[in-house]
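Hello again, I could really use a second opinion on something today. Take your time with it, there's no hurry, and the full record follows here:

___
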Amino acid sequence: MTNGRLKHLFTNAKPYILMIGLQFGMAGNYIFGKEILNHGMSRFVFIVYRNAMAVVAIAPFALFFERKSRPKMTLSIFLQIMVLGFLEPVFNQSFTYLGMKYTSASFTSAIMNAVPSITFVIAVFVRLERVKFKEIRSQAKVFGTLVTFGGALLMAIYKGPGFNIFHSASTTQNQNGTQESSHNHQTTGALYILMGCVALSAFYILQSVTVKKYPAELSLATLICLAGGAQATAVALVAERHSHAWAIGLDYRLYAPLYTGVVSSGIAYYVQGLVMQMRGPVFATAFNPLCMIIVAGLGSFILGENLYLGSIIGAVIIALGLYTVVWGKAKDYSKSDPKLASSEDTKSLPITSMDDPKSDINSVNLENQPPTNDRLEGLNKLEKESELYVTTEVY
């Protein structure tokens, strides 16, 4: 009984553990991305190498573990994979890194918190999410989405006083000139990042649909990275025609694509596919604000970025919105469980009644006769006798 309860608790906690762990991994995407842009590497070439390394890292696992369970490829699934490869590896990554180039890693991760709100709106529009304003759980999801978006908007608009908890005051003052110049392009950068948010939200929605038709998460992640890498290569060959832009060595040009490819692309697509099968796309995107808080700390420690009062207040508001959305999704999940349990109980009833052969014969005879009052009373009596028979058999 104890093992069953532990297994049940782990099953319920599994999507939470996966998404929280993924946010720590995704935080490195912003840190490595900003660092590599500061070193002058082309974002188009970076995206190509990132997806290529993701394919190399994940393809062997997909070929081995899913060699027998991989579904048949159809034209519809192939086209969906091509669209997925364009939405996230090409469109989202291109505009997100472009916006990050104009701003900072912390600012980018803050604006990306609009993804849960946009995903929820798209999910409602395509009827993957249902909203009944009379239900508290639907109200919680709507309210949490608005609060999360409001917190991210506050972080984008209001800065307040800045400070750096990991570096000295002199270091902070030396970086003010660079950060002020980047903040001059804050509006432009925010616009590019929001364009990436829309593409990423659409990616989540389409991925949740595709993974149901092609339930081989590792293979699907590999194919998405392969399709995105091929499309990104075509874009990069047009944008970067100089051979020196494609140079790579044992430095950040190798480490950054390797980490972001394996963790932020390959593992992320795989984990998101698993969680979406369990809880849906809105639940998966609701954990994005945690990544922002992690990036804020790492950005201050590694990149020397300042923390602002507006970011701290916005982080608290976003955390409240995150809790509200997750609570609403948890109620959705718990609401569906009793239905499954009742359906299983209903299916088990005929098995119990068949333990007594007399009840089978009498039931068939009664079903073939008109339902008079005497017949109904006899049927009720037989049901009570059957229940007593099953009870004595159990004891």
